[in-house]
Write a structure and sequence with these properties.
The structure holds two protein chains of two kinds.
Chain A lengths: L4 H4 L3 H15 L5 H27 L8 E4 L10 E4 L1 H21 L10 H17 L3 H19 L5 H32 L4 H7 L5 H21 L8 H8 L2 H26 L11 H21 L3 H22 L2 H31 L2 H13 L15 H18 L5 H15 L7 H29 L11 H19 L1 H15 L4 H6 L14
Antiparallel strand pairs in A: 1-2
Chain B lengths: L1 H19 L4 H20 L26 H32 L12
Helix pairs in contact in B: 1-2, 2-3
Classes of the chains: A mainly alpha, B mainly alpha.
């Protein structure tokens, strides 16, 4: 007897990149096109798998929309269980889309500035996908390390001084975070005797008084590891430098990696600590809420202060991370729905911005750009060199338009998806708790508005200096670089136009997350395949 | 026994924390190593210490768990050692690269005051 193919599909997002990444190591570096083709085929495969999983989790194919894969046919909680639910499927889809765009962008130039870009890219995808699917804490650690090891390589891809400096800090910080992760896991296992997330959620009720203290310490240490990844203040100082130093396609993937930390917190926190009763209920909610708000403030100030474009996006990513953390800290269902929409919209826009910034940089004449800056600083009157009425080159028009779209989404101005995300966040903040607006919700709203304002000022300044300065020269853009940016922005438009069905889907996700009792029921009851274990005898 | 191990872990971890706050990259690396030793020991004894007990049995029949050590922490620590070793080795390579490119072993890639 064997499993139906659909059951094995849960493992595909992990296995496919592993196999392709290994295959790519064996191929000679000079065969760029073949390597790119394999890599891209794998990403398309991941996209297909993600769409299939999305359809299967949402169509009632699996009971409660949760598909369980028991690795090596060991029943949970003894073996490692992989779980595909609506949230995991959504994140897999987002990963595949971003990966496809980043890869296409890197085809002509960025994948060739160093060795083993394609293998590392595939291993990064394997780690990220595994993180979304696994239902076991230690397995989560392993996938995190796969993701991080690949990301260390990718930060250093195209070895130069900036990347080495950023890489030293990035790697040291993350190694310490991994140690924290292990301490947290050890403490949780010591107090509950399990690493399976569902089993853990069930056993929380039986943990004694003395052990509960240890468990909370463990959960807090574990939380620090994830909060370092999602760059909560004061744990996120590594982020802007790293993002600014990494090559653009890598930086676009890193935007997603910040969201991985947030995803794990969303999943674990809602599963373990969101209940209304029990000794552990609501543990750490205030830390997430106020920490998230501090992160928003830090990101907003950073955006205003940053002079380099790479850092600008880094701080924008910090703002978006902070918003999500604060939303998780409040934890109401409608708010989580809006937060997920915000996650989608901000990740897409930020990734597009990462790619776009490099194109903009390239289109500027470096000497003239420097002059424009100096003139601004010393308040020289600038005489226009070109007569009025010269048409704008198409490439520059594309860059300007894309920049405007990114800025609209990041700042949350109408008419694009950023506005819908912020509007729905405000709507649920105002309507939560039966019409009484808590002071913390009010503070969050004020902070979000102020951070939006800071983002507008910072992005406007950047846009004016870039597109209205005389430094802009006619850029030569490659089609493989235009398409990914266009596609990401188009998705942002789709999010806007199709907001209603997408919101309906996200509501089902957050409804699942608000019923933590759902997962133990499905995961622990999953039967093993009979007749396999004794088959050899 | 518990006290000895606890003190050992504490000393290792404390030294590690002090070292990773130092400005030289080799000190940082040594600090990371010491911290990972401490964490590995910590995983190994998680829950409790078992003295003179095997983690596995080859006997048929249902064994009494009281006579055996918990095998899971031992499996976990093995994984943690391998992963920690690999990532630290990677950091070492980067450190050598940084020394070659920048000409200094300061973690910022330049001496203070320059």
């Amino acid at each position: 007897m064997s499993l139906h193919w659909s059951q094995h599909l849960i493992l595909a997002p992990v296995l496919l990149p592993l196999l392709c990444g290994t295959l790519l190591i064996l191929l000679n570096e000079s065969r760029h096109q073949l390597k790119f083709a394999i890599n891209f085929a794998s990403v398309l495969g991941l996209l297909t798998a993600a769409i299939l999983l999305m359809a299967m989790t949402d169509s009632g194919y699996w009971q409660d929309g949760i598909g369980v894969y028991l690795a090596a046919n060991w029943a949970a909680p003894f073996g490692i269980a992989l779980v595909a639910d609506r949230l995991a499927a959504l994140m897999l889809l987002l990963t595949a889309v971003l990966a496809g765009c980043a890869l296409l962008y890197s085809m002509l130039r960025w994948s060739r500035i160093g060795v083993h870009f394609h293998s590392l890219f595939q291993f990064l995808l394997m780690g990220i996908n595994g993180t979304f699917l696994t239902h076991d804490l230690f397995n989560l650690f392993v996938f995190f390390e796969v993701m991080l090891a690949a990301s260390y390589g990718l930060v250093l891809h195209g070895y130069n001084l900036n990347r080495i400096r950023a890489g030293m800090q990035f790697i040291a910080v993350n190694l310490v975070a991994s140690l924290m992760f292990l301490i947290g896991i050890a403490l949780i296992y010591a107090t509950t005797g399990t690493l399976n997330m569902s089993d853990l959620a069930q056993r929380l009720a039986d943990v004694g008084e003395a052990d509960m203290v240890l468990l909370k310490v463990g959960a807090a240490v574990l939380g620090i590891a994830f909060l370092i990844k999602s760059a909560m203040w004061p744990l996120g100082f590594w982020l802007p430098t790293t993002y600014a130093a990494a090559s653009p396609p890598v930086a676009a993937m890193f935007v997603l990696m910040t969201k991985v930390g947030t995803y794990v917190i969303l999943r674990l926190w809602l599963l373990l600590f969101s209940g209304d009763d029990g000794a552990a209920a609501g543990f750490g909610a205030n830390v997430l809420l106020w920490g998230g708000m501090a992160t928003i403030a830090f990101g907003a100030v950073g955006m205003l202060a940053s002079d380099k474009q790479g850092k600008l996006t880094g701080y924008a990513a910090i703002i978006s991370s902070g918003t999500l953390l604060a939303v998780i800290g409040l934890g109401q269902q409608a708010l989580v729905t809006a937060g997920l929409f915000y996650l989608l919209s901000s990740t897409l826009a930020m990734a597009a911005f990462m790619l776009l910034i490099e194109l903009i940089e390239r289109s500027r004449n470096p000497v003239e750009a420097m002059l424009a800056l100096t003139m601004e600083a010393f308040e020289f009157e600038e005489t226009p060199e070109q007569p009025v009425g010269v048409g704008m080159p198409a490439a520059l028009a594309f860059l300007g338009l894309s920049f405007a779209c990114c800025a609209l989404v990041i700042t949350g101005l109408p008419p694009l998806s950023g506005f819908i995300a912020k509007f729905s966040l405000f709507h649920s903040l105002l309507n939560g708790d039966g019409g009484n607006v808590a002071p913390s919700s009010l503070t969050l709203m004020v902070l979000m508005l102020l951070s939006g304002l800071a983002a507008i000022i910072a992005l406007m300044r950047f846009g004016v200096r870039t597109f209205w300065a005389s430094g802009a020269v006619n850029a030569r853009l490659q089609i493989t670089e235009v398409v990914p940016v266009g596609l990401l922005l188009l998705l942002s438009v789709v999010l806007t136009v199709q907001a209603e069905p997408i919101f309906a889907y996200l509501e089902r996700i957050s409804a699942d997350l608000q019923r933590p009792e759902l997962y133990p029921g499905r995961v622990l009851a999953e039967p093993v395949v009979p007749g396999v274990v004794d088959g050899g005898k | 026994m518990e006290l000895t191990i606890a003190i050992a872990i504490g000393v290792l971890f404390g030294s590690g924390v002090w070292l990773i706050l130092r400005p030289r990259s080799f000190q940082v690396l040594t600090g990371l190593l010491l911290m990972s030793y401490a964490v590995n020991l910590f995983i190994f004894i998680m829950g409790q210490l078992w003295v003179d007990m095997p983690p596995l049995t080859l006997d048929d029949g249902v064994p009494n768990p009281r006579d055996f050590a918990d095998p899971l922490p031992q499996a976990l620590v093995l994984t943690a050692i391998v992963i920690g070793f690999a990532t630290t080795a990677l950091y070492l390579v980067l450190m050598i690269g940084s020394r070659g490119v920048t000409g200094t072993d300061h973690v910022d890639g330049k001496e203070t005051g320059q």
